[in-house]
Amino acid sequence: MIQAEFVISAVSESGFPQEGIPEVVFAGRSNVGKSSLINRLAGNEKLARTSSTPGKTQSINFYRLNGSFFFVDLPGYGYAKAAKTAVQQWKRLIERYFQSRSAIVLAIQIVDSRMPPTESDLQLSEWLERLKIPYMLVATKADKLSSNQQHAQGRVISNSFGGQSVVMSSAKTGTGYKEIWKRVLQATAVESSRNNH
Q: Exposure winner among 23, 43, 157, 170, fewest CB in 10 A?
């Protein structure tokens, strides 16, 4: 049984928790299914609030899992209707987050399995590589594709990211979730054992 609790919704760096436990970050564009992914992984469909208005989450949400690590939900990027100033604020907040948190052990970059990656998706992965943050690519909404389409789209997405492997996932069917949890537990275990020495 997974224990998951909402900790804080931070709108500035001063709101970031100071516990120093490992952090697994979820990043992706608006409406890509981030909240559904977090809820399914946590086994609690009410944990991360799914917004019917894309781009509405403008804060960084921290959820504590099993008392030992955080799931961190970043605001979705690339939503056209947000005002320019709001977009700048988000960008700054997210940049500050990545630059100031030494406890990030894994970033889960989420893309829509049905679409080719956008410019913003590719920029994010380049940025994670520059910051040397380990990341995995997860393509959501795979239940909307046939298995042939999943293979084809998996290849398209992987090639766009220079051959990076892609986990096809679906919040409806649970496809890909074992694989995602495996990476999460490996990443958080490594960090926890480092902290205990």
A: 43
